[in-house]
Specification:
Number of helices: 5
Number of strands: 4
Largest sheet: 2 strands, antiparallel
CATH architecture: Orthogonal Bundle
Radius of gyration: 16 Å
Helix content: 55-70%
Strand content: 5-15%
CATH superfamily: Winged helix-like DNA-binding domain superfamily/Winged helix DNA-binding domain
Structural class: alpha+beta
Shape: globular
Amino acid sequence: MLPAAKPNAIQLQAKLFRGLADPSRLAILQALRTGSRTVGQIVTLTGLRQPNVSNHLACLRDCGLVSATPRGRFVFYALSDRRVDHLLHVADELLAEVAKGVYACSRYRHGEANHG
């Protein structure tokens, strides 16, 4: 049984990981790992459409994972905290070890848990 104070922390952590589970948001975060970029640069790097990138950037910014800095007529987006890059790096390392199992896992489909 979970202590009374833990469910809020666990729910927040689950919400963070649900946000990271979106392939478009992950692609944007990956594109920002090497430095700040404009929406146009992110579109080019990810292959996503501009409205999609803008929508996901707003989500990532609202959640505090990405910062926006206006420079002239452009807005440059960057990871808001170096730990976001670190989290993605650790995920890469973990996947190097367990990718086959994650790929074959039948309990997850399209980012949703299969509880049946």
